[in-house]
Amino acid sequence: MTRRFLGSLRGQLVLLIIGALLLAQAISLWLFVDERGLAVRAALGSEAAGRAANVARLIEEAPTDLQASILRAADSPLVRFSITGQPEVDHLDHQDGGSVEARMRALLGPEDNRPIRVELHEAEGSLTPMSHINADASTMHLQMMQGALSTLEMTVSVGLEDGRWLNVDTRFNRPPLQWPVISTLSFGITAAFLLIAAIWFLLSRLTGPLRRVASAAERFGKGEAPGALPATGPREVRDLTVAFNEMQDRLIRHIADRTRVLAALGHDLRSPLTALRVHAELVDEDDIRDSMISSIEEMQEMVEQTLAFARGMAMSEEVQTLDVGAFLEKLRQDMAGGFETRDIPALQIRLRPNAIRRALRNLVENAERYGGGAIVAVRADEDSLAIEVLDEGPGVPKAELERVFEPYFRLEQSRSRNTGGTGLGLSIARTIARAHGGDVILENRSAGGLKATLILPRENSV
To answer: Which residues contact 330 (CB under 8 A, 6 or more apart)?
Structure first.
C-alpha cells in the first residue's frame, strides 16, 4: 500500500510539497535565529556602551571620594567597572566594527575626542558571573541562566580627563529560544493535518479524472466499451478526457464500419459463389467438375474466415465472468475431435466467451491438424492466465514463429499442402487475444512439437 501510494502522482506531489515546505521552514528558522542573535548582541552591546559612557561622565563630575561607590553601584553580575592607570585593552585589532565606539561618542557629544578602545571576542567556557560578585548572587544568576548560553566577552577602555582609564568588562549572548514542546508539537501536527487535507483535496481533483481516463483506456484496449467519461477537473485534464472520448468514438465507428463492409462483401459474395456451385454441378466431365467445386469451396472458406477475422476485431460482445475449467470443458465437448486437458485450476476470469472460444478452437484445430493431437493446460499467476495448447508435431522454424501470424500466410515447408486452411487461424486468435489485453505466443518445445500460449490479463478476474 505504501509503495503504491509513493508511486502515484498524488503521493509524489504530496511528499514534494511537504518536503519543500519543511525545507523553507528550516531555512527561515535558521535565518530567524541568526538575525535574532545579531539583534540581541547589538542591543546588549549598545546597552553596555551607553552605561560605559554615562559612568565615564559621572566619574569625571563626581568627587574623588564618591568614585568607588559609583563603580560599585554600576557593577552587575555580567558587567564590571574599574579605574586603572593603564587601559586593559592594549591593542586595537579586535574592534567590533566601530558600533560600540560610535554609540559612546554619540552619548558623550561630538566635541569629546577622548580615546576609546573596544575588544570583542568569544570567551572560553560557559557564561558565568564576574569574579567580583558574591557567591549567593553568582549561584542565583547561574540558576536563572540554566547554563544554556555561550559567551561573548567585550572589554571597553575609556580615557578620563585626568589620564586614568575606565575599564568595562561585560559578557553577554543571545538568550535560548523559548519553544514549549507541547505547543510546538500541537502547532506542527495541526498545520501538517490542514496542509495535507488541502493538498489531498486539490490533488483529488487532478488525479481522480486521470485515474478514470487510465482505467477507461485499459478497458477499451481489452475490447470493452467504457462509454463517454465526464469531463471534470482542471482544464488540461478536461481537455484530455474530451480527447479520449472523441478517440474512443472514432475507433468504434472505424471498426464498426470496416466490419459492416466486410460483412456486406461476404454476403454479396455468397450469392455468386452459390450460383457457381450450381453451374459446376452441371458440368459433365468429372475431373473438371470436381476441380471447380474444390475451388469454389476454397473461396467460400476464405470468405467465411475473412468474416471471422473481422468479427474477431469487433467489440460488440459483452464481457462475462466465467469459470476457466467449465469453459474449457464445454469447448472440449463441442469440438468433434476433443482434446486432452491438464492442470486446470479452479478460478474465474472476465472475457468475451464467444471470441475466446473461437481463438482457442483455432489453436486446437491447428494442433490436431499439424501436430497429431492437442493437450490443453492452464497456468495462472497474480497478473495473467496462460492457456497452453501443446502438440507433438514438427514445430515451426524459429525464423517463422512471428510470420505465421500474418493474415493468409501458410507455412508450406513444415505443414502439409493438402490439409487446407486459409492462413487466418493464428491471425484471428492473436487479434482476439490482443483485444482482451493479452497475446498469443508460439514456442517450439524442447521435447518436440509446438506450444501455443493464449495469455489473458487477470486485473479484473476474481
So the answer is: none
What does DSSP say about strands 340-342 and 450-457: parallel, antiparallel, or unpaired?
A: unpaired
At 176 the three-state DSSP class reads: coil
Listing DSSP states for 74-117 in one string gives H-BTTEEEEEESS-S---SS---SSHHHHHHHHHH-TT----EE
Helix/strand/coil for 132: coil
Q: Would you say 423 and 369 are in contact if contact means Cβ atoms under 8 Å apart?
A: no
- Regions in the chain scoring below 70 on pLDDT: 1-12, 25, 28-45, 91-97, 122-151, 172-185, 187-188, 222-224, 266-267, 305-317, 337, 411-422, 459-462
**By the 8 A CB rule, do 441 and 453 touch?**
yes
For 47-91, the pLDDT digits (tens) are: 777 888 888 888 888 888 888 888 888 887 778 888 888 888 876
Phi, psi of 87, rounded to the nearest 5 degrees: -70, 140
Query: How many angstroms separate the Cα of 11 from the Cα of each of 6, 195, 201, 216, 370?
Result: 5, 14, 12, 22, 54
Strand ranges (E), 257-332: 320-323
C-alpha grid cell, residue 30: 535558521
- Length reported for the chain: 462
User: Counting beta carbons within 10 angstroms of the beta carbon of residue 328, is it exposed (0 to 12), middle (13 to 18) or buried (19 or more)?
Assistant: buried
Asked if residue 89 lies in contact with residue 118, where contact means CB atoms within 8 angstroms, the answer is yes
Question: Which pLDDT does position 95 carry in this prediction?
Answer: 55
pLDDT for the residue 3: 66
Contact 225, 198 (CB under 8 A): no
- What SS3 state is found at 57? helix
- The phi, psi pair for 454, rounded to 5°, reads -95, 115
Cell of 359: 481463438
Predicted local distance difference test score (pLDDT) of residue 417: 40
Q: Are strands 384-390 and 450-457 parallel, antiparallel or unpaired?
A: antiparallel
Residue type, 299: M
DSSP letter, residue 234: S
Q: 321-353: per-residue pLDDT in tens?
A: 889 888 988 888 888 767 888 878 888 888 888
What secondary structure letter does DSSP report for 5? H
Buried b (16+ CB within 10 A) or exposed e, 77-103: bbbbbebeeebbbeeeeeebeeebbeb
Question: Residue 429: is it exposed, middle or buried by C-beta count within 10 angstroms (0-12/13-18/19+)?
Answer: buried
Do the Cβ atoms of 380 and 345 come closer than 8 Å? Answer: yes
For residue 113, count other CB atoms closer than 10 A to its CB: 10
Q: Rounded to an integer, what distance in angstroms lies between the CA atom of residue 88 and that of residue 118?
A: 10
CB 413 within 8 A of CB 401: no
